[in-house]
Amino acid sequence: MQGQTILCFSTIPVGVGLAHTPFSANLRLTGHGGQTKDLDGDEEDGYDEVIYPVDFRQAGHIVDDEMHRIMVASLQAGVRLTAIFDSCHSGSALDLPYLYSTQGVLKEPNLAKEAGQGLLGIVSSYARGDLGGMASTAMGLFKKATTGDDTYQRNLRTKTSPADVIMWSGSKDTQTSQDANIGGQATGAMSWAFVTALKKNPQQSYVQLLNSIREELEGKYSQKPQLSCSHPLNTNLLYVM
């Protein structure tokens, strides 16, 4: 139920408040996720990420803004939360502003690359005689160029947290996370890959584990698991729960 899910999320900061820091908690969510139109301008692509509780048809979905408010913004320094979101479109399900690549470096908006892709779209529309498509692509490109970096910088200012919140997600925001059946047991593909990678080598750095998880999925599933954090992270450090 949506209310029960939110209540469960809310117990994390409550538990922290009752404990002496440092405090550590783990959260794993395997379920359905999606996207909805962003209403407050904090998403570069114009869409918020959501999860769907079992009663979402009656109670609605839960938006990443709310999950960030409950599980990230309310935590204090010295608190550690490790979250695994094995759901579709979960790349930024907690709106953590520091997203890392498989090289262990911070991903930042590549406006030049996006501009090139946008210009290619305009040329393609022109070749087809699609003037409406040209105008739409041009407007989208202009909006991205004028707001994309501003959104990124604003999120760094407003969503950075002194707490250690680490999130492993099943896919990019634009991708789905697949179901799997391993040994007759239903599970999420990313959850299976995460456990398998750690069983093979429990002593891995953050960036090594990210690559190991992707290697387990390679050739079987197209999704690309993501690693993000609430503050800058040295991805060469040994991963600990």
From TrEMBL:
Cellular component GO terms held in the UniProt record = cytoplasm
Superkingdom of the organism of origin = Eukaryota
* Pfam families xrefs: Peptidase_C14
Where in this chain does the record put each Peptidase C14 caspase domain?
30-232
- Molecular function via GO: cysteine-type endopeptidase activity
Gene Ontology biological process terms from the UniProt entry: proteolysis
Which PANTHER family does the entry link to? METACASPASE-1, METACASPASE-4
Q: Which family does it belong to?
A: Belongs to the peptidase C14B family.
Q: What is this protein called?
A: Peptidase C14 caspase domain-containing protein
Q: Which organism is it from?
A: Carpinus fangiana
